[in-house]
Structure formats: structure tokens, C-alpha cells
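Design request, C-alpha cells follow.
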């Protein structure tokens, strides 16, 4: 049986990369309009009303960037899920080990923050 923290380097690298891509994708999506395509404003009244402003949609470059990030994310997810490392575990243990991999300190992305002055921390885990 493989030890809990005995993950292959390529699996750790893939998990680190997928977290980075997901972070980049989320940050990009926060800046984009609510719709990829141009849409009129909409309003729905009811038990859970909401409204969206009119949008010109995304630029071609933004659409290409999102598509590329999603392809990379899907390819890495496939690599991680289908990795031979998981064959060393029973099904229930695979789920637990996958959770361990996702939360390893060495796979957590480093977030850069702006320092207000000299000597202040500029990176956070």
C-alpha cells in the first residue's frame, strides 16, 4: 500500500498546475461580461428575481484565452484522474488520497500581493 504523502512528482506538478489554471480562469471570468455573446439586458421577476445588464459579449482574445484555459484544465484533470498511482488503492481510499493530494502544501498556489512598503510580505500561500 502506498503511503499517504508518497505521490509521484508528475502528479503533484499536475495538481499544482490545475489549481493555477483554475485560479487564472476564475480571475479572468471575474473581469468578463456575464455573457460570452452579445445580449440585451434581462430581468426576471419571481420568487428569485435577478437582472443582468446589456453586454457586448467577450472580445475574441478573451474567448480564445478562456477556451485555452478550459482545454488545459480538462487535460490536466484527465491526467490526474487516470494516473497509474491510483491503482495502488481501493476505490474508497482513492477518494481519500485524491483529497490529500488536493490539499498538500506544495500544490497550493502562491498568491502575489502588493506590498505597501519595504520589508512587507509580497507572497502568500
Amino acid at each position: 500500500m502506498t503511503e499517504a504523502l508518497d505521490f509521484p512528482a508528475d502528479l503533484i506538478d499536475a495538481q499544482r498546475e490545475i489549481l493555477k489554471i483554475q485560479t487564472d480562469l476564475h480571475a479572468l471570468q471575474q473581469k468578463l461580461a456575464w455573457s460570452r455573446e452579445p445580449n440585451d439586458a434581462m430581468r426576471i421577476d419571481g420568487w428569485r428575481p435577478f437582472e443582468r445588464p446589456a453586454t457586448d459579449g467577450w472580445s475574441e482574445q478573451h474567448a480564445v484565452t478562456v477556451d485555452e484555459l478550459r482545454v488545459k484544465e480538462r487535460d490536466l484533470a484527465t491526467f490526474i484522474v487516470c494516473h497509474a498511482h491510483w491503482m495502488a488503492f481501493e476505490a474508497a481510499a482513492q477518494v481519500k488520497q485524491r483529497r490529500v493530494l488536493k490539499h498538500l502544501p506544495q500544490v497550493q498556489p502562491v498568491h502575489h500581493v502588493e506590498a505597501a512598503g519595504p520589508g512587507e510580505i509580497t507572497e502568500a500561500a
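Comment from the thread starter after seeing the answer: thanks! The chain is about 45% helix and 10% strand.
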